């Protein structure tokens, strides 16, 4: 879950009425944010991925004010009346990172960018990069001092050789080629802004370099500073939706503190012009009254629905059959009426007491094949076999031990211990045997569990099958014990079987067999090869038997009708 | 029952088996202590029977054991060679007898190694057999003794296993590396004072030990007394098989679901991205789908679903209307949909994939389905995380189902496992809207999130042509089981310690 550390004081100062830290934490139980820890002014918060706005002090305060009924409706979106600052995407950008959007934000009278607001904006910006920005690949944001810029801002790809750059917080001007070769930020994100011998640039009308998107701002024209009153917020990216969402989310930091918003028209490479108005205004999502009813199960009066919408910091206008709900730019998660209905539902705490247990119209049952597997498990338990429960993943060493194993290798395992999908339980059970050499003998254990075997017939390229495997370790254990075990199981399941010699990995040649029922192979067993026993430090003979229950089930007349 | 009897040494009549009696008889009749081999030989019984009887007699205080530690000498390989070749001093002595003198430098030509040469000279000089100075000559007076040197006698004696060897000569051979020492212990047995005093029943009226089929068939049991057993003797260690507690707990939980009208469904462990994610409206670039979170395999490729279903799912991802419908359900994810991604294999990361397959089979409403099964995610293994975990998936498809019914079912499930307090808070899953999480209050652990669920989104249901609302949950059953079973480490669920499984510590 996305998480960040917020300033408790900055959240509290935005609330219309005072709230103790304890009350604040308790209220948040009904939100999509969760307080994971509090230390002094530092509030560690995690949120569900759809409510990133709650990871800003402004967004969290807006939610809290609505939840306690101290504020209603959308946080005001003030429009600035000021000179325009246009942006243009040059054709040179091509498909490398084609999308661009911008908004100018202006401090309310008497206010300026202070240190803590700058810190909040930068922290929130980095969190957005890591989440919807997909580590800047899909979207990245920039914050610039708009007063010091001259329009239009040009977004282009320029030859590396023609670009020189003073990186943010640096003092020396570098050739861009050197920056990309040496700077740690360039090492991490450089490839997203480079194409052959060109790099992406953002310059103002005078040619001053603002940044090398999506890597780093420049030190002069690109550095927003404490005291600035007007800022350009910009986003570039490979996905238009993410660019718009990311920029919209960043606006909550400023709008919640009364900064006004001014659209920035963008002229795209194809000549089309977007006036940017949709980025600074509300969008409308239709909500049908029936949707609210069918999701919540409540027959709320229209006034209650409207009140809930207002507490969710949205606003509603009555429309035929429901409402038109205005949504601010930072609520990109609200896609359709269903999403808004969730906000309506969750605007007040959902009490467990509202729950209704619906009478069951159906009769429940296990799959007959599951019952069959359990029956085999019980037969083995009745024979005195312990019941281990082993993971379906086995170690590289186990697979190498059985040279002819068909176990599938994971392409990204977390460890060598859990690197292969077992294709027989034998692999897991040799591991169990090896881990139990400190205990006395005889040892007997058995398990019914899934294995995964390659299968060109299967939709996923491999089939999940269920096997039962048993191991007997101790003096006097031999082929006959395994044979009589398999014989017993098949007799108990009422099927006739035929045994034939087989060469099975990990067994002594001439002392292993395959068992067929109606011509189909259903079981294998044999004496475990002493080479393996010595390798594992097992001091007694061991026999193994494994039954393919998925093969056997249809042969016992079983049919799954589920 | 009261335990008023006293230990055997307190005078309670002792019972001994026929085998023990035979051995005790021998010890009582012996004039000196006997070792085990002697007892075996004299009685002609199997060695392990004799050993067992001796130990039991000792534990009953009827026999005494004395362990004798002795040192024996053994020839080293070099010592064996010398035995046949002759010791170097003997060879030099013989040489000097046949020739009057020889220079030390000429010994090499006579077959002496440097070491043998010096050893031979040293020994002969210590025995005062050589005249002073070089070349080497035998001293003329007194005349050299006839017969073997003491080392030669010792070497031969050790080789023959003689019972006495002159220690000084043997030690000298040890120093020269021709002989080594070995420690031996010998167990010697004798009847104890109590063993000698014990009154035994006359031989011939042998009491019955183990009751056998033969004794029953012949009726001999009527004529002979039963030998009483030592009821305090430790019995053989027995372990029984028990149901695996985790699996048993899962079955109990399953009973609750079956009782609530749910029927079981199952899906493959190796899935395609389509069923694990796409059909559940998980965006194709969702972070949980990256190689850092989802496990994939080498060497297999899946097949896409039917072209019709693929087209419908692609449409909702891309925000297009379903084929034949005028309006899109929603704006989708604002990115293209890649059908190649759909067929990539991935290990099932959520049992919701089982629900998706179930819904795709167009079940007749109303329906209730459950699946309690394994999922795999790319987690580092520690006490709280494991690559493999289980979820208890449940879906309810019926007209009129709402969040209130979902909450009601959560409450019912919580009560069924003995928890009365439930709280609901908002949550998020890409495939449900609304999404909620049921928290329950555990008496010891406090509030725990246990029931994540919601109503499937239209973007999930409509491509699958499901017409009724569907409640869905994926309970983290692994965690719930840990709490119920009192486990602190998730790895305990994968129990394979046979002693623990047997409920014993061995």
Q: What labels would you give this structure?
A:
heterodimer; A: 562 residues; alpha+beta; Phenylalanyl-tRNA Synthetase, Chain B, domain 1; 29% helix; B: alpha+beta; Arc Repressor Mutant, subunit A; 7-stranded mixed β-sheet; 3-stranded antiparallel β-sheet; disordered N terminus
Number of helices of chain A: 17
How many strand elements of chain B? 14
Number of beta strands of chain A: 29
Q: Strand content of the residues of chain A, in percent? A: 25-35%
Given as residue ranges, the uncertain stretches of chain B (5+ residues, pLDDT < 50) are: 1-13
CATH architecture of the largest domain in chain B: 2-Layer Sandwich
In the CATH scheme, the class of the largest domain in chain B would be Alpha Beta
Largest sheet of chain A: 8 strands, mixed
Low-confidence stretches of chain A: none
Describe the biggest sheet of chain B?
7 strands, mixed
Mean pLDDT of chain B: 87
The name CATH uses for the topology of the largest domain in chain A is Phenylalanyl-tRNA Synthetase, Chain B, domain 3
Protein structure class of chain B: alpha+beta
Structural class of the helices, strands and pairings of chain A? alpha+beta
**Count of the separate structural domains of chain B:** 3
CATH homology-level superfamily of the largest domain in chain A:
Phenylalanyl-trna Synthetase, Chain B, domain 3
CATH topology of the largest domain in chain B: BirA Bifunctional Protein, domain 2
Task: Tell me the greatest interface.
Answer: A-B, 89 and 104 residues
Outline:
Chain A is of the alpha+beta class and 562 residues long. Chain A is built from 17 helices and 29 strands. Chain A is elongated and about 95 Å long.
